[in-house]
Amino acid sequence: MMFIPDYFDLLGDLSYIEDFGLLKAEVLPELNQLLVIDDIMIKKPVTATEDMPLLAAASVMAHHHLNILPVVKDNKVVGIISQMDICRAVYRVEKKK
Protein backbone atom coordinates (compact mmCIF):
# COMPACT_ATOMS: atom_id res chain seq x y z
CA MET A 1 0.00 0.00 0.00
CA MET A 2 1.30 3.44 -0.91
CA PHE A 3 2.17 5.80 1.96
CA ILE A 4 0.27 9.07 1.76
CA PRO A 5 1.59 11.63 4.23
CA ASP A 6 -0.90 13.52 6.31
CA TYR A 7 -0.62 17.08 7.52
CA PHE A 8 1.50 16.14 10.51
CA ASP A 9 3.92 14.03 8.48
CA LEU A 10 4.54 17.05 6.26
CA LEU A 11 5.03 19.33 9.25
CA GLY A 12 6.97 16.85 11.34
CA ASP A 13 9.62 19.34 12.42
CA LEU A 14 7.20 21.61 14.26
CA SER A 15 8.24 21.14 17.85
CA TYR A 16 5.94 23.75 19.40
CA ILE A 17 2.88 21.48 19.11
CA GLU A 18 3.13 19.05 22.00
CA ASP A 19 0.11 16.80 21.51
CA PHE A 20 -0.47 15.96 17.85
CA GLY A 21 -3.05 13.32 18.77
CA LEU A 22 -5.27 15.89 20.43
CA LEU A 23 -4.83 18.31 17.57
CA LYS A 24 -5.64 15.62 14.99
CA ALA A 25 -8.81 14.63 16.81
CA GLU A 26 -10.10 18.16 17.40
CA VAL A 27 -8.87 20.26 14.49
CA LEU A 28 -8.31 18.13 11.40
CA PRO A 29 -11.89 16.94 10.84
CA GLU A 30 -13.10 20.54 10.87
CA LEU A 31 -10.25 21.76 8.65
CA ASN A 32 -10.92 18.95 6.21
CA GLN A 33 -14.53 20.08 5.84
CA LEU A 34 -13.85 23.82 5.68
CA LEU A 35 -10.69 24.20 3.63
CA VAL A 36 -9.53 23.15 0.21
CA ILE A 37 -6.11 23.75 -1.30
CA ASP A 38 -7.38 26.79 -3.22
CA ASP A 39 -8.16 28.49 0.10
CA ILE A 40 -4.55 28.42 1.30
CA MET A 41 -2.31 28.08 -1.74
CA ILE A 42 -0.05 30.87 -2.96
CA LYS A 43 -1.75 32.23 -6.07
CA LYS A 44 1.33 33.86 -7.64
CA PRO A 45 4.31 31.78 -6.54
CA VAL A 46 7.90 32.83 -6.99
CA THR A 47 9.41 30.58 -9.66
CA ALA A 48 12.67 29.68 -11.37
CA THR A 49 13.40 28.76 -14.97
CA GLU A 50 15.42 25.80 -16.21
CA ASP A 51 18.24 28.06 -17.39
CA MET A 52 18.50 30.09 -14.17
CA PRO A 53 21.97 29.85 -12.59
CA LEU A 54 21.99 27.75 -9.43
CA LEU A 55 23.24 30.57 -7.21
CA ALA A 56 20.54 32.90 -8.56
CA ALA A 57 17.89 30.35 -7.57
CA ALA A 58 19.51 30.03 -4.13
CA SER A 59 19.44 33.81 -3.77
CA VAL A 60 15.74 33.97 -4.71
CA MET A 61 14.97 31.24 -2.19
CA ALA A 62 16.88 33.03 0.57
CA HIS A 63 15.31 36.40 -0.23
CA HIS A 64 11.77 34.99 -0.14
CA HIS A 65 12.42 32.53 2.74
CA LEU A 66 11.53 29.53 0.56
CA ASN A 67 12.56 25.90 0.97
CA ILE A 68 11.43 24.92 -2.51
CA LEU A 69 11.07 26.75 -5.79
CA PRO A 70 8.85 25.62 -8.67
CA VAL A 71 10.68 25.46 -12.01
CA VAL A 72 8.60 26.63 -14.97
CA LYS A 73 8.84 26.52 -18.75
CA ASP A 74 6.22 28.19 -20.96
CA ASN A 75 4.18 28.96 -17.81
CA LYS A 76 3.98 25.27 -16.86
CA VAL A 77 5.64 23.65 -13.88
CA VAL A 78 8.32 21.24 -15.10
CA GLY A 79 9.89 20.52 -11.72
CA ILE A 80 10.94 21.87 -8.36
CA ILE A 81 14.27 22.66 -6.78
CA SER A 82 14.81 22.49 -3.05
CA GLN A 83 17.42 23.85 -0.67
CA MET A 84 18.61 20.26 -0.27
CA ASP A 85 19.05 19.94 -4.05
CA ILE A 86 21.26 23.02 -3.99
CA CYS A 87 23.26 21.71 -1.03
CA ARG A 88 23.82 18.39 -2.83
CA ALA A 89 25.01 20.18 -5.98
CA VAL A 90 27.45 22.33 -3.99
CA TYR A 91 28.70 19.25 -2.14
CA ARG A 92 29.30 17.36 -5.41
CA VAL A 93 31.28 20.28 -6.84
CA GLU A 94 33.34 20.67 -3.66
CA LYS A 95 33.96 16.92 -3.48
CA LYS A 96 35.48 16.95 -6.98
CA LYS A 97 38.04 19.61 -6.02
TrEMBL record:
Keyword Ubl conjugation: no
Xref: InterPro entries: CBS_dom, CBS_dom_sf, Diverse_CBS-Domain
Gene3D superfamilies per record: CBS-domain
UniProt keyword annotation of Signal present: no
CBS domain mapped to chain residues: 41-97
Keywords: CBS domain
Protein's recorded name: CBS domain-containing protein
Upper taxonomic lineage: unclassified sequences, metagenomes, ecological metagenomes
